[in-house]
């Protein structure tokens, strides 16, 4: 396994070097979102402040320090809005209010304020495709109230040979079964791409678009830094409601049974995305401040995904069309060649003005450690965070949490799984294993909540696998550090041995960086070795608070406290004079790999 990690490290530096030579418009022009980590918080499972077993906004506020320490400067929150929780917040009944169990609008304002103090930006989830069936808009539409008649996709249905009324076509919902639900009161079917509690909005109605524009304006005015746009590829369906062709796959209730050529990735979708980009750009023009960003969620073929960046004519869309290919196209058996071609494919298809992004996990897909094997979690985190462009990660991945697959059917909450009833299949479908509470420490409920029962069970491995333990452990996967896009820094420590800190400036600009974000360092560090372009020499003493780096600098520090490991310095010094920094990194890694598990603290470079 270690050998494989080494291979991954090798090629990722190759890729990085290539990218450095062809940046988009020069590094000086990079906007905040181009050099950040987007860390997804699943609010229900992050931190519970009031002991009800459910995470909440005050809980998030109390843990902002963890984000800061981890080098995270933007966080995307899964939905926190009013919702009957049929799909755990992805069924919104009021788009501008906060769900009671998560807190209040005031709590949200406090979150923005506290996060901003730490330089952390808050991104909210924007769910335009559907509402809850408890949303006022839906209730009004059911009653055909003026202005709301066509807010959703309604249809009388088809009369079958049996003389009965059937759904208008064969469309299947993502969560399986017919995508149509009969509404008695209105006497019509409505379309739902997800659960029946999530009726699809009718985006062919300009009033719907206007209502959704208002939602974006509302949250922008509250100080959010952008939006993760949910299920964007499902926004439109063909108007004549044609049947979709069968794919040849079995199970006529399953979403895979049909080819979704009339209900997904329709060209109209992109115009709405470009329209929203304009709205965000105009907001900035009118109000100043940082660029608001749009991150779009679409599991689709690569050409369709690329169209979210910009139109053929260069009309701008989402800055971050999520790149899910590291998730969808790779697995336990993937080797370095698979990774490399996967990475190169995204870069080849991306428009030249685009910024690459890399998504390694989210609340819908198994965790990295479960998908690739726990031994590879470190290597995968390193890959994600050192690839050119934007890293997108999910809470818990930084400590290598694993899926909790022993959740019983009675404990299962995910509607996608519950519809199977108590059968073998529910475990294959359930997204609950990736949504269990964050493992902070080894106290009750992993420090997540003081409640007797938490909304989903805590993974029983929390006593060994938790953040507190990793912070103090000899071997750890905990990462963290905010420096710059150019500067990579990491700390290697083993009890009873010297602690070493590696700092590499991959860029041509000079930087002054504060190494104290690595945590647990003395105020001064001693230079063990430095690259040829460095102003430092072996034995120099530097202040951790403000380390000056020349262009392409590379320095190895020893924390002055402990006994000598002269051979390390000698090895690295020799390597530095002869080889380039990426090779040195590998040598340091090789040197240590007998006694260390890689414990890299890093940030996107
Ligand atoms: C994608 C979300 O990530 C998922 O959790 C949700 O069930 C669907 N969209 C429906 O909103
Ligand atoms: Mg709570």
TrEMBL record:
**Position of the signal peptide:** 1-20
Give the classification, highest ranks. Answer: Eukaryota, Metazoa, Ecdysozoa, Arthropoda, Hexapoda
CDD domains attached to this UniProt entry: AmyAc_maltase
The record's keywords, sorted A to Z, are:
Glycoprotein, Glycosidase, Hydrolase, Signal
Recorded hits in InterPro entries, A to Z, give:
GH, GH13_cat_dom, O16G_dom_2
Task: Please list the reactions this protein catalyses.
Answer: Hydrolysis of terminal, non-reducing (1->4)-linked alpha-D-glucose residues with release of alpha-D-glucose
**Enzyme Commission code(s) on record:** 3.2.1.20
Instruction: Provide the family line.
Output: Belongs to the glycosyl hydrolase 13 family.
Pfam families annotated for this entry?
Answer: Alpha-amylase
Q: Its Gene Ontology biological processes?
A: carbohydrate metabolic process
The GO terms this record gives for MF are: alpha-1,4-glucosidase activity
Q: Does the keyword Hydrolase apply?
A: yes
Stretches assigned to the Glycosyl hydrolase family 13 catalytic domain: 40-435
Q: What is this protein called?
A: alpha-glucosidase
């Amino acid at each position: 396994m270690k050998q494989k990690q080494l291979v991954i490290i090798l090629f990722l530096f190759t890729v990085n070097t290539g990218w450095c030579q062809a940046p988009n418009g020069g590094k000086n022009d990079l906007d905040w979102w181009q050099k950040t980590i987007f860390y997804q918080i699943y609010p229900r499972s992050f931190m519970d402040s009031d002991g009800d077993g459910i995470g909440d906004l005050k809980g998030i506020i109390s843990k902002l320090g963890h984000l800061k320490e981890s080098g995270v400067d933007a966080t995307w929150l899964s939905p926190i809005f009013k919702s009957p929780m049929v799909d755990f917040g992805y069924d919104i009944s009021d788009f501008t209010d906060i769900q009671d169990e998560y807190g209040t609008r005031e709590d949200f304002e406090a979150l923005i304020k506290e996060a901003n103090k730490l330089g952390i930006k808050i991104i909210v989830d924007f769910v335009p495709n559907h509402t809850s069936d408890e949303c006022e808009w839906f209730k009004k539409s059911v009653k055909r109230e003026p202005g709301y008649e066509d807010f959703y996709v309604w249809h009388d249905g088809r009369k079958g040979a049996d003389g009965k009324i059937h759904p208008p076509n064969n469309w299947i919902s993502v969560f399986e079964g017919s995508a149509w639900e009969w509404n008695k009161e209105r006497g019509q079917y409505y379309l739902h791409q997800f659960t029946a509690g999530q009726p699809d909005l009718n985006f062919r109605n300009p009033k719907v678009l206007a209502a959704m524009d208002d939602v974006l304006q509302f949250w922008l005015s509250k100080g959010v830094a952008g939006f993760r746009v949910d299920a964007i590829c499902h926004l439109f369906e063909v108007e004549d409601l044609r049947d979709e062709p069968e794919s040849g796959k079995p199970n006529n209730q399953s979403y895979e049974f049909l080819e979704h050529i009339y209900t997904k990735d329709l060209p109209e979708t992109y115009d709405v995305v470009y329209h929203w980009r304009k709205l965000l750009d105009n907001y900035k023009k009118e109000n100043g401040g940082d660029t608001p960003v749009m991150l779009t969620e679409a599991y689709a073929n690569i050409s369709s995904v690329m169209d979210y960046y910009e139109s053929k004519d260069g009309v701008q869309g989402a800055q971050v069309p999520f790149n899910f290919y590291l998730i969808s196209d790779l697995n336990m058996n993937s080797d370095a060649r698979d990774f490399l071609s996967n990475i190169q494919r995204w870069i080849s298809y991306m428009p030249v003005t685009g910024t690459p992004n890399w998504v390694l996990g989210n609340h819908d897909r198994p965790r990295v450690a479960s998908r690739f094997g726990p031994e590879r979690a470190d290597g995968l985190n390193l890959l994600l965070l050192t690839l050119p462009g934007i890293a997108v990660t999910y809470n818990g991945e930084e400590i290598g949490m694993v899926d909790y697959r022993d959740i019983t059917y009675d404990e299962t909450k995910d509607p996608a799984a519950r519809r199977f009833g108590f059968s073998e299949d529910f475990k294959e479908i359930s997204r609950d294993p990736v949504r269990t509470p964050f493992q902070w420490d080894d106290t009750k409920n992993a420090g997540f909540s003081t409640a007797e029962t938490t909304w989903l069970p805590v993974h029983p491995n929390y006593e060994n696998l938790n953040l507190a333990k990793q912070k103090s452990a000899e071997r750890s996967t905990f990462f963290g550090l905010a420096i710059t896009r150019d500067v990579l820094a990491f700390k290697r420590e083993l009890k009873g041995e010297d602690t070493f800190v590696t700092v590499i400036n991959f860029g041509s600009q000079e930087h002054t960086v504060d190494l104290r974000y690595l945590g647990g360092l003395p105020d001064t560090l001693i230079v063990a070795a430095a690259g040829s372009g460095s102003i430092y020499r072996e034995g120099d003493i530097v202040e951790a608070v403000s380390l000056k780096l020349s262009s392409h600098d590379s320095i190895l520090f020893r924390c002055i406290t402990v006994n000598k490991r002269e051979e390390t310095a000698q090895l690295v010094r020799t390597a530095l004079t002869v080889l380039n920094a990426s090779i040195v990194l590998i040598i340091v890694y090789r040197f240590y790999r007998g006694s260390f598990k890689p414990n890299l603290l890093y940030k996107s470079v």
